[in-house]
Amino acid sequence: MRCSSFTFFDCSIYFTIDMNEAQILATYKAILATTRQMLVAVEKNEWDTVNKLGQQCKQLTDTLTAHPIRQVLSKEAQKEKVALIQQIFACDAQIRAITEPGITRLHHYLSSVHKAFE
């Protein structure tokens, strides 16, 4: 069976085409860990790190969407998955709360510069 792989932190994680329950949960845990690291990097204004972690997060997310879940998760695994997703959303909300004001200011600045050259 063919496997896809990617580098996450300093190790390689391999996922088979049909992800099993443990692999699915491991992927959500990796997304949460990456999102938490992104939050720390945002708080420290380490934008290169944020970008790198964002790319890692996208790879992980793409892994989930590229391999449709054909297996029904156990009730326990489903609860864990939901809890992980809620934590991911909470970190994402914190990241957006920090970054959106700066993005809004940048948008207004660029709009005013654009209008000045019209």
Topology:
Layout: E1 3-8, E2 11-16, H1 21-43, H2 47-66, H3 75-116
Antiparallel strand pairs: 1-2
Helix pairs in contact: 1-2, 1-3
Pfam families: FliT
Subcellular location: Cytoplasm, Cytosol
InterPro entries: FliT
Domain module tally: 1
Structure summary, number of beta strands:
2
- For the record, the CATH class is Mainly Alpha
Structural class: mainly alpha
Strand order of the largest sheet: 1-2
In CATH terms, the superfamily is: Flagellar protein flit
In whole angstroms, the N-to-C terminal distance is 58 Å
* pLDDT < 50 stretches: 1-16
CATH architecture: Up-down Bundle
The biggest sheet, with number of strands, parallel, antiparallel or mixed sense and barrel status, is:
2 strands, antiparallel
- Overall pLDDT score: 84
Subcellular location: Cytoplasm, Cytosol
Keywords: Bacterial flagellum biogenesis, Cell projection, Chaperone, Cilium, Cytoplasm, Flagellum
Organism: Nitrosomonas nitrosa
Protein name: Flagellar protein FliT
Outline the structure in words:
It is a single chain. The chain has a single domain, classed as Methane Monooxygenase Hydroxylase, Chain G, domain 1, CATH 1.20.58.380. It has helices at residues 21-43, 47-66, 75-116; strands spanning 3-8, 11-16. Helix 1 (21-43) packs parallel to helix 3 (75-116). The protein is 72% helix and 10% strand. By secondary structure, the chain is mainly alpha-helical.
